[in-house]
Amino acid sequence: MIFVTVGTTEFDSLVAAADRLAAAIEEEVVIQIGHGTVEPRHASWFRFATNLDEYYTATDLVITHGGLGTLTEVLRRGLRTVGISNPDRYDRHQDQILQAFEEAGHLIWCRDLVDLSTAVERARVASFVPYQPPESHIHRVIAAFLLDCKQQRA
Questions:
Q1: pLDDT by residue (tens digit) across 72-105?
Q2: Please, what's the largest Cα pairwise distance for the chain?
Q3: Are 11 and 86 spatial neighbours (Cβ–Cβ below 8 Å)?
Q4: How many CB atoms are located within 10 Å of the residue 42 CB?
Q5: Helix (H), strand (E) at residue 138
Q6: CA 142, CA 134: separation in Å to the nearest integer?
Q7: Rounded distance, CA 73 to CA 58, Å?
Q8: What is the pLDDT of residue 91?
Q9: Is residue 129 within 8 Å of 106, Cβ to Cβ?
């Protein structure tokens, strides 16, 4: 199964491209369409789910928007991933995220939906570098901030 997710917004062009892909292959495709208006005809679909674990467990490959939360969730699971930047995001920050993850060897970045089937085929045979989340230091930053606030009050 191929699982496609657009996150919490809309990404109709990805949904339409994934539906075309579903029509052209024998494999099951399931698409999470969010708030989009395109309703797939060749793939199973739903808008939202409380939890995507069942889809991640059942899938062989994920096609996803370039949102950091979704990407790290998918990559932590070691799933073959094709990432696509949603051009409706105001600052195109997803391009930077996808570029960094591709350069690190974690996924295939599909830069144009015309190339989606090629990106999927590349992801099927790619040797990906396992994703290891960076160590978080936010607790130290918060502790230092609180200490500074305490010292300023004294």
A1: 999 999 999 999 999 876 778 899 999 999 999 9
A2: 70
A3: yes
A4: 15
A5: helix 138-153
A6: 18
A7: 15
A8: 79
A9: yes
| Main-chain dihedrals φ then ψ at residue 48, nearest 5 degrees | -140, 160
Residue matched to tokens 């199973």: 44
Q: Token pair for residue 97?
A: 């995220």
CA dihedral (29, 86, 102, 130) positive or negative = negative
Query: What CA–CA distance (Å, rounded) separates 116 from 76?
Result: 23
Query: What does the block give as tokens for 54?
Result: 């069942």
**Distance between CA atoms of residues 8 and 25, nearest Å:** 27
Place of tokens 């995220």: 97
Q: Kindly report, residue by residue over 111-150, the tens digit of the pLDDT.
A: 999 999 999 999 999 999 999 988 889 999 999 999 999 8
How far apart, in whole angstroms, are the C-alpha atoms of residue 116 and residue 122? 10
